[in-house]
Amino acid sequence: MAGSCEISNIFSNYISAMYQPEEAQPPMELLAHLGKEDNLLITRWNPAPELEAEKPAWFGELPYFWSKAQVLEWIGYHVEKNKYDASAINFSCCNMDGYTLCHCTQEQLRLIFGPLGDELYTRLHEIVSVSDELTWIIDLLEKEDMSSQEIFQDSGKRSTLATTCPSRPLQCACPLPGRGSPFPGNNGKSNLSALPPPGTGMSHSPNSQDSGGSDIDPDPTEVKLFSSDDGFADYDKEDVKHGKRKRGRPRKFSKENRDCLETKKSKHSPRGTHLWEFIRDILLHPELNEGLMKWEDRREGVFKFLRSEAVAQLWGQKKKNSSMTYEKLSRAMRYYYKREILERVDGRRLVYKFGKNSSGWKEEEVLNRK
DNA sequence: TTATCGTTTCCTGCTT
DNA sequence: CAAGCAGGAAACGATA
Fold it and tell me: Where is the composition biased (Basic residues) (predicted)?
């Protein structure tokens, strides 16, 4: 059992890193309402001490899963740290997510960033090496993800990216008019969100269009990569009682309330972002998800939540939403009934069944992917 | 700019 | 009584 405990810990670490909580330090109230068992989910990657002073969006997350915005912030961090002349960098070539970044060779980074490329390469691999113990799980999920993309979507876009990365790792995008870019020559507008991110992993848009505008420093000469203007207001029940809050998803923070926020990932990023896929992926790793969920009837696709709140917290971590609960998660699950992604299982609590519009969970499909 | 999608949030009522 | 389920309504952010 020692082995499985270790696997469990690794998985927990991995999940914590991959589905990193939105705050650098999990809020105590979050920890408090988790059970003893759930606390293992909070274990997370410990970055190098030098990184701890700043807590930008990429902080604490595996480089492999950085969004484009996080990559940019990371680059900006090292530009500033090394007092590097950013004008020498072709920022139109920086439109890559962490997945792509991790596939860049030292030479490629040097080509784009000049002498800073070596530094970036070294720093990147320092961070990556910290989480080396997790790479087998990452690889596992990555492989499965690529296979499922090919099998279920017949697009193969992600694998195309993966294989073309070394030779053409970057999308040298022409500057496009768009939202808030920190880059010179782009007139303060970003091309990040304007570029289609087919299968490129995280497709995070760093600067939302309705975040109150005026978030971006328009100074075209300034490379200011640490703008962080995504996030949600943390309304509490008192606000609700006093009628300060409308129904539905909370609005974003106003600018003055943004200090404590982190960036948020896209809901539409292609990498297993949908709730049902997230659930499926947990189920497909029974040896790793110890105690979260289990198959009730593997053939029929019937499954059960064993630790519903823990799964909800995990989902919340993935979506950078610390207020996720099983109640909310289950509402989203119930919407799947209409779309026949899930089927009702009457009279059984916490039990769901995959429907005909779901895929990738059947034993045959799983075997085919391997 | 607008429509749509996939949630997220809140709610009421019901069932286990 | 608590927890879970069902589903309406509205809101949200990302994307097409």
Answer: 242-252
pTM above 0.85, yes or no: no
Separation between Cα atoms, residue A88 and residue A154, nearest integer Å: 40
Confidence of residue A3 (pLDDT cuts 50, 70, 90): very low
Half-sphere exposure of A272 (CA within 13 A, CB side): 23
Q: How far is the CA of A164 from the C1' of B8 (A)?
A: 37
pLDDT at A72: 75
Which residues have C-beta within 8 Å of that of residue A40, sequence separation ≥ 6? Answer: A8, A9, A12
User: Is residue A288 pLDDT above 60, yes or no?
Assistant: yes
Report pLDDT digits (tens) over A174-215.
332 333 232 223 333 333 222 233 333 333 333 333 333 333
pLDDT band at A366 (very low <50, low <70, confident <90, very high): confident
Alpha carbon distance A328, A248 (integer Å): 11
Distance A342 CA to B13 C1' (A): 23
How far does chain A reach from its first CA to its final CA, in angstroms? 26
- Residues A206 and A86: their CA atoms lie apart, in Å, by 20
Q: Does A267 contact strand C, using a CB cutoff of 7 Å?
A: yes
Query: Which helix (H) or strand (E) covers residue A241, if one does?
Result: helix A237-241
Quickly state the pLDDT bin for A52 (edges 50, 70, 90): very low
Measured in degrees and rounded to the nearest 5, phi and psi for residue A343 equal: -120, 150
Neighbours of A319 (CB within 10 A): 18
pLDDT tens digits, one per residue of A210-251: 333 333 333 333 333 323 333 333 333 333 333 333 334 443
CB within 8 A of A11, min separation 6: which ones? A137, A285, A288, A289, A290
Closest CA to A7 of A365, A240, A211, A287: A287
Predicted confidence at residue A39, as pLDDT, reads: 37
* Cα–Cα distance, A220 to A80 (Å, whole number): 16
- Asked whether residue A327, judged by its CB, lies under 7 Å from any atom of the DNA or RNA strand C, the reply is yes
How far apart, in whole angstroms, are the C-alpha atoms of residue A280 and residue A327? 19
* CB-based contact A314:A11 (threshold 8 Å): no
